[in-house]
Design brief:
Layout (H helix, E strand, L loop, with lengths): L1 E2 L2 E2 L3 E3 L6 E4 L10 E4 L2 H9 L6 H18 L3 H12 L6 H14 L4 H39 L7 E5 L16 H8 L4 E6 L6 H12 L4 E4 L4 H6 L5 E4 L3 E3 L4 E4 L2 H10 L4 E4 L5 E2 L5 H4 L8 H4 E5 L5 E5 L12 E4 L6 E4 L2 E3 L3 H7 L3
Helix pairs in contact: 1-2, 2-3, 2-4, 2-5, 3-4, 4-5, 5-6
Bound molecules: 5-S-methyl-1-O-phosphono-5-thio-D-ribulose.
The site of 5-S-methyl-1-O-phosphono-5-thio-D-ribulose has 17 residues, from helix 2 and strand 11.
Pathway: Amino-acid biosynthesis; L-methionine biosynthesis via salvage pathway; L-methionine from S-methyl-5-thio-alpha-D-ribose 1-phosphate: step 1/6
Family: Belongs to the EIF-2B alpha/beta/delta subunits family. MtnA subfamily.
Pfam families: IF-2B
């Protein structure tokens, strides 16, 4: 997407093709910083410490991490240890395992001398595929926005609530939950996006809001707790969120707080949609609440908040007593029964095994 006058993706190979550059998302919206990653350790740090984040982008970054590892040591042992090392960086987003498996399955049968080149080529392909998946999700999601727009008085915006950041910064480009929004605006359908701030790390306030400003999407930032109130007062027409892992039964794991939005949506008859690229489906898991590992992150993310002071300094401040301990489960699971539909690259599926198998039979 555009940053100023320039088109950016979130990740790209360096000109010599032996490393990558990423947008370091920790500094947004205050500073736009691009940093190179040229070792597996740097890639692991960037994923773990959320310089890059969002399930699809985590997967693509890990794929490039494998390629970088193969430059130094293309042996079977290095392939396995890189898989283990990168896999433990973020336990919930399933795209990470998907991308690591894809890379290992491709590289294992190749002679070691050919592995690095093949790995960079495949990582680039996965990145391209991600862009295409998001475009397709956009086209299918657009049909829902069109229907809602048609049911409203002419010129009234379709009001969409979103949680966390499932926009282009969470993917390679376009985003999953945001792709239908961009297409709707291109088609001239007025849209207004309500952006949940998304405590503790504020991905909504810092990243989604920054994206909306950059692409000139009408939007309003709200605190996480405002969603139920807005829905009760008829101010939200639909919810679209992303997902870090969706089970074969259609249970949706996403950023902490998503479940509460789904409960409020159900109580108020507001449709609740999930934008779901197929690499985010975990076919090995049925019951999301019981089986998905939920990442527990540092309590500092709850107790300390990043912001910019009036004199332009970007810094962290503490908001709770020093002696207060904080818990920080990073994701929750929304049961399939609360999900109106899964917007995939192949169409909109009911949130159930039958619905998903209908679009993805194998
Ligand atoms: O902890 P994060 O910022 O990586 O969490 C991101 C989300 O929860 C997104 O909604 C999800 O990865 C889908 S992104 C297309």
């Amino acid at each position: 997407m555009k940053v100023g006058d320039r088109h950016y993706r979130t990740i790209w190979p360096t000109s010599d093709g032996r490393a990558i550059e990423i947008i370091d998302q920790r500094w947004l919206p205050h500073e736009f910083r691009v940093v190179p990653l040229s070792t597996v350790d740097e890639v692991a740090t960037a994923i773990r410490d959320m310089w890059v984040r969002g399930a699809p982008l985590i997967g693509v970054t890990a794929a490039y991490g494998v390629a970088i590892a193969m430059l130094g040591d293309p042996s079977d042992a290095a392939l396995d240890s890189t898989w283990d090392y990168l896999h433990e960086t973020r336990p919930t987003a399933i795209n990470l395992r998907w991308a690591l498996d894809d890379m290992r399955n491709l590289l294992r049968p190749l002679p070691p001398a050919e592995r690095a080149d093949a790995a960079f080529a495949r990582a680039a392909e996965i990145a391209e595929e991600d862009v295409e998946l998001n475009r397709s999700i956009g086209r299918h999601g657009l049909t829902i926005i069109r229907q809602i727009a048609a049911s409203k008085p002419e010129g009234e915006p379709v009001r969409i609530l979103t949680h966390c950041n499932a926009g282009w910064l969470a993917t390679v480009d376009y985003g999953t939950a945001t792709a239908p929004i961009y297409l709707a605006l291109e088609e001239g359908i007025p849209v207004h996006v309500y952006v949940d701030e998304t405590r503790p790390r504020n991905q909504g306030a810092q990243l989604t809001a920054w994206e909306m400003v950059g692409q000139e999407v009408p939007h309003t930032l709200v605190v996480d707790n405002a969603g139920g109130h807005l829905m009760q007062h008829g101010l939200i027409d639909m919810v679209i969120v992303g997902t870090d892992r969706t089970t074969r039964n259609g249970d949706v794991c996403n950023k902490i707080g998503t479940y509460l939005k789904a409960l409020a949506a159900r109580d108020n008859g507001v449709p609740f949609y999930v934008a779901l690229p197929s690499p985010t489906i975990d076919w090995t898991v049925g019951d999301g609440v019981a089986e998905i590992p939920i990442e527990e992150r540092s309590s500092d993310e709850v107790s300390l908040v990043w912001g910019r002071t009036a004199d332009g300094k970007v810094m962290q401040v503490r908001i709770s007593p020093d002696a207060t301990e904080a818990a920080n489960p990073a994701f929750d699971v929304t049961p399939a029964r609360l999900v109106t539909g899964l917007i995939t690259e192949r169409g909109i599926a009911e949130a159930s095994e039958t619905g998903l198998r209908g679009l993805f039979p194998r």
